[in-house]
Amino acid sequence: MTHAVCPGSFDPPTLGHLDVIGRAAGLFDRLTVAVLVNPDKKGMFGIDERLELLRETTAQWPNVTADSFHGLLVDYCAANGIAAIVKGIRAVSDFDYELQMAQMNHGLTGVETLFMPTSPAYSFVSSSLVKQVASYGGDVAHLLPDVVAAALADKINSTGR
Ligand code: PNS
């Protein structure tokens, strides 16, 4: 059985993430979307909120599950029998750091990284930009799954961010 992982912060998941996840789900028997728990970086959404949003928005793909992980991604892959990491590449600017991480991860355990070009419709979309625009009242609903757009609006209304 082929098992791959899409790792990330997913704070929150965007349609760009979902585009890559859905296409990767078609290439592997099983795909885990893994949210990094980073104690040094408190996000807008808690880890449980991100996992719930990912579960709701990936429910259409029965071979996709959502999970969280601490520490090194390669250790998570080894512990879960994951042979491939799938990363979306939006632009050349993503490539430098992604290549560095892919080569580091391969050197550590031999895990492979596959780069998937994002759909051009989402090449400018990032969670951080979406949060920033939304926090100043901009409309980003067309860049997010409906449930995420609603959750982001709630978050901004409740925290004033
Ligand atoms: O969505 P992001 O924040 O771009 O995701 C980055 C992520 C989580 C994929 C990356 O930071 C990562 O793999 N972190 C886990 C820690 C680790 O393995 N670091 C060494 C990378 S070579």
| Strand residue content | 15-25%
Largest sheet composition: 5 strands, parallel
Helix content: 40-55%
Query: What's the β-strand tally?
Result: 5
Succession of helices and strands: EHEHEHEHEHH
- What structural class do the secondary elements suggest? alpha/beta
| Low-pLDDT regions | none
Describe the structure in your own words.
This protein has 161 residues and is α/β, with parallel strands linked by helices. It contains six helices and five strands, in the order βαβαβαβαβαα. α1 (15-25) links the parallel β1 (3-8) and β2 (30-36). α3 (73-79) packs across α4 (92-109). 32% of the residues are buried. The model has no long low-confidence stretch (mean pLDDT 97). 4'-phosphopantetheine binds at residues 7-9, 36, 72-73, 101, 104-105.
Give the SSE map:
Blueprint: E1 3-8, H1 15-25, E2 30-36, H2 47-57, E3 64-69, H3 73-79, E4 84-89, H4 92-109, E5 112-117, H5 127-135, H6 146-159
Parallel strand pairs: 1-2, 1-4, 2-3, 4-5
Helix pairs in contact: 3-4
Bound molecules: 4'-phosphopantetheine.
